[in-house]
Every structure is written in structure tokens, then in C-alpha cells.
Amino acid sequence: MLGAFKKQGGARVALLLLFLLAVAAAPETASAGDGTTTVLTQVGGVARWAALDRVAIVRAQPSRTAKKIATVSPITREYTSELFLALESLTKPNGEEWVRVRFPVLPNNRTGWVRRSVLGSYRIVRAHLVVDRARFTAILYRRGRRVFRSQVGVGQAQWPTPRGHFYIRNKLVGYFDPVYGPVAFGTSARSAVLTDWPGGGFIGIHGTNQPGILPGRVSHGCIRMPNRAIRKLARLMPVGTPLTIK
Amino acid sequence: MSELLTLEQVDQDGAIREAAERVEGDSRADFLRRAVLFGGAFAGGGAAVAALAKPASAASRNDVAILNFALTLEYLEAAFYTEAVRKGALSGRTLEFAQIVAGHERAHVAFLKKALGSAAVARPRFNFRGTTSNAAKFRATAAALEQTGVRAYGGQAANIDADAILKAAVSIFTVEARHAAWIRHILGQAPAPRAFETFLTMGQVLAAVARTGFIVAAPPFTGKHT
Q: What pTM was estimated for this model as a whole?
């Protein structure tokens, strides 16, 4: 009897915890004349991302007639899903849903609007990577708690690592080039200088075969860290993680 | 029939020319050149291929993305079967399956590449992690790949803009479904276990492919100096 009661009590506690977790992750919603706005990502808190399920036309405003900023393919050059960081959604009175997204197109830090229908299901991430170009550090936070720190190399003065808010687009393993170490993350950040590089000058976070020159301004814009550190980061940081470079 | 078919011969109802007017982000001349080549390549095969001769007529950006998605999967399957046959670990009906399916998948690759022209994605590098040199692993992987292929094509059907592309995709889809049933039969499983199939989105398929580690993508932020 007592065992059954304890079991029931345990189940209630588990349900309560699940409820609290769900409430904590639930997006904030506000209504106005032009529709209902829902915050989907709070940097340093809960973030949401979604893979593209079809070609996305990114517009300056949440309207089919608004200026087109970019057209983005659902497949990346690395044969992974293209994904956008979902910042907020707007449901119009007519039911049409738009999402303001961060997307991997120059100029950096730009955001735009896409139809909800081009995106797959939202995925939740509670991690946040912060790269400090002055201190040459990368720190990963999860639920606000620091879980990883490494010294890094960043771009040289003529090829600076861009500053701003980005996200992790993909994680690459299994390639055969020691220059990048065992793991490389693709980010949504792009070099504003080396735009003619393969793939369009995307900024990566990767290992190295030259750990002796870290930390410092050593790269063409990518963020390098020792292989041991990048392996650990690969275990801790999922794709879709917001990235702040300051 | 020669490769020198005229556009008018291929496009008797004007569909290709009409589609060319609404191609986004593509030069009309290049589009029409591909349409003619495409028609020429398939015009010799009767009514079925006549339907396949039209995909190039509908190169909306969305359809190009879907065709490239399909091409990525077909590259993967073609490389998998070709390597398995070459490595010599298969025998009997498994070998027969691999040889025939390898030919089909290579034909799908050639078809999609021709349809896409210069818009085709490059062939990835692959590492099949031992699944092509062991018959049991090969059979299990083949079943998973074929099932994923079926669910991937099915998932895109409703997203395709052009009827001609849809016809081509369905013609590949049904063959992939037969491959899936065939390898299930070889494995001793029910060839058609359900009355209805569930499909996958593009994102779900690419995530599943990424989890296999079969596609080895070099970092794109490259040069030897980053």
C-alpha cells in the first residue's frame, strides 16, 4: 500500500516536473491588431530552430508582397538540411503564419520573414555558445550554466571573424583533412571579406593540426580550438545552438 | 532518335516554352538548351519515357531543390550498390539484387543529372563503413536505404510544382518501392507489411542520412588556411 502510494507520489512529482519543464519552454505570446506574436528564441534561454522542408523565400516583412531578401535552398553544400533559427512567429487574423528567422546570408545579423509552411517542426535548444574575439575564448552555456570553455584562434585583422548573433548550421565528421581536426561545425556567420571562397565564405568552428599557435588571431575568419576541446564541444553542442561572437 | 530533336518536336503542346517563361533565376536560353537535350535523350523509349522527357520543363527553384534532394539520395544508393558489387562479398540472390538495383540507381542518377544540367549538386564522397563488404550488413543497410528512399519520394510528391516532374518522380518512386519489397523478401520479411506508407520530410530524410555517416562532406570554409 505504502509502495503504491509512493509510486503514485513519484508519478505525480514526475508529472509536475514535466509540466514545469513544458511551461518553462513555452513561448511567450502577445496579441495585437495585426495578429498574435510569439517569441520563439531568447538568446541565453530557450531557442528554437527548424529545418527547411522546401525552398524558402525570405522577405523583409511578414507579407507575400514584401521585398524578397533571399531565396534559400533546403540542402546545404555539405548535404545536410539547411536550418533557420526561429526568432518569433506572427499569426495573422486570417490564420496565415509567418516566422522571423535568422538565416545564413550576407550581410551578417540580418533577419527576415518566411512562411511557416516552409519549415519543419521546431526543435528546442537550451545551449548558447559565446565566442569572445578579444579574450580568445569560446564558452558554452546550457540552461545558463557554463559547461565548456576553451581558448580559441580567430580571424586575422584583414580577415576578421564577424561579430554578431548567429547559430550552428551543421556538424561535420568523417572527412579526411587534419587541418580541420576531427570535427567541424558550420555556422550561419559569413566572412564579409572572403566572399568568393568555396561555399561562400562561411565561418566554421573546428579543430586544428597546429595547436601551438592558439590562442590568437591566426585564421581567415574561422574559429579554431584544440582537437580535444572540439571533441568535447561536439558532445555538448547540438546543431541549432545560438552563437554570439563579440 | 537523334539528340538533335528540335524544341518543337519535343514540346508539341508548348508546355516547355511556357514553363521557360516562368523560370526564376535561370537563363532562358540555358533552360531551353537543357529541355532539348533532355527530350533527345529520352524520346527513343516510347510512351513512358515521353512522360519523363518533360521534367526539365519545370525548373522552378523549388523543383530544382527537390530534384537535387533526389539526386543526393540516388548518388548515395548508386555508390552503395556499385561498391557492394565491386567488393565481391555478395552471392546468390543478394548479388543478383545488388547488380540489378545498382543499374537502376545509376540510371536514376544519370536521369536526374541530365534534368538538372548545371544546377545539379556535385557527387558527395562516401564512406559506407563496412556495409558493402559484408553480406548481412549489406542486406540490412539496403533495406533501410530503400525504405528511406520510398518515404523520401513519397514525402516530396505533394511539394512538386510541375506535373512533368511529378510524373518522373512517381516513376522512380514505384521502382524504389519494388526494390524495398525485394530486399525485404530476401531478408525473409513481409514485402508489403502495411496497407499505407508513412512519408518523411526532406529535413527528416537528410537528418537520417547524416546519422549514417555515409556522406563524407569536407568543411566548405576551406582552403588550407582557415
A: 0.78
